Amino acid sequence: MWTCNSTYKYAIHFSENRPKNDNLEQQAQALYKSWFVDFKPFKDGGFIDSELGEIPEGWRVGKLSDIGKIVGGSTPSKKHHEYYTTNGIAWLTPKDLSITGAKFTSRGEIDITEIGYKSCSTKMLPRGSVLFSSRAPIGYISIALNDICTNQGFKSIVPNKEIGTAFVYYYLKNNTSRIESQASGSTFKEASGSLINSLPIVIPPVKLISKFNEIANPIFSQQEKNEEEIKKLSQLRDSVLPKLMSGELKINDLHS
Questions:
Q1: Residues 45-71 pLDDT 10s
Q2: Global confidence as pTM
Q3: Residues 249 and 243 sit within 8 Å (Cβ to Cβ)
Q4: Which architecture characterizes domain 4-8+17-255 according to CATH?
Q5: How many helices (H) does the chain have, and how many strands (E)?
């Protein structure tokens, strides 16, 4: 059970987690850019010409679909209430990510039922999939914490085993503007499956991606842990705030 004192101490810890995660994010993103965009560690080696400019020898230009499987989503009919539930199959919409802003996602605001899942063309995505909103708007990115499916507003990527989540995640972060500029649509822009599949990407040797993952994966693990603690405190705040407003709990009690 949470006491006033534990609530206060946890609030302090919570206030430290956001800047910690921001700092970790800056480190991982800077490493990706240095290695795979600016090629700084490889400047003394040989380079070759490619359609994306000069790249280090031994690297190649491919498509996003070369490093992962691109999977779309779908929405069960809203006319059938039995397709939706509060405790079923995790299902995500871009609106869910607009609310949480989380790097890691376990589920959206509402789940779908087994019959709802079977009624449409949405597909189950495994933990570690990179969830990319492809319309309304383009560019929300999150990582699946567990099996999850999405609506049609996503083109998600299931990374190849030898590539891993981090490399795909930062590729999309660094290329969101490019994707948006190539999207089409009259009512609102949408990045089609064919566009996402064919996105050009510089692919380094697998051994180099493995070295990157050795650094990035522990960072992601720590960020995941920090976000979970942030989520717990948010839930705690929501339970404590009404008591503060009603006078049942006093501010000074939090320090006792």
A1: 999 999 999 999 999 999 999 999 999
A2: 0.87
A3: yes
A4: Alpha-Beta Complex (3.90)
A5: 6, 13
